[in-house]
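input
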Amino acid sequence: MGYYQDKNCKHHGFIRTAQGALTSFDAPCEGNAVAIPSVSPFVAGVTKSITIKGQHFGIYPSPTVPAEGRVIIEVNRSSPGCGPFPLVMRWSNTEIVVAGLGWPSNGTCPFRVRDQVIIGVWNAQTGTGPASHESTVGGPSRGPARRVP
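output
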C-alpha cells in the first residue's frame, strides 16, 4: 500500500493485492480540507501585509496579481472606512502572504483598534473552502514602561 499526489496536489491512496492488482482510493474529504490555524496580528496604524498559515491552500500560479477571489478579507465595523484589497505576494500550500491592504494615499491604516477582521481562503486549484479565520485588531505596542524619576 502507499499514496501518491496528482497534478492538482490532491493525495490518493492505493492498495496492491497479492496478485499485483492496484486499487486506488481517496481519503475522506476532511483530511484535505482547507484550514487556517493562524494569521499574523492586525495592528491599527501599522499592518500593511499579513501572513496566513494553514494547510491545503494549493499552489497559486502567479504571486504578483490579485487573488482572483481566492483570498477575501472583510472588516466588520459600523463606520465606513477604506477596505482592504489583498495582493498576493507569495502563495504556497501552507502559507499565503498578502499586501496592499487598502492603504489610501494619505497613509491612514484601514484597520482600527477592535475591528473584527474575517479572512476567507479557497484552494487555488480545486476551489474548495472557504476556510475562515477571525481576528481582532489591536493597538500599536508602546514599548516597555519607563520609570519617571
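quick obs: The mean pLDDT is 75.
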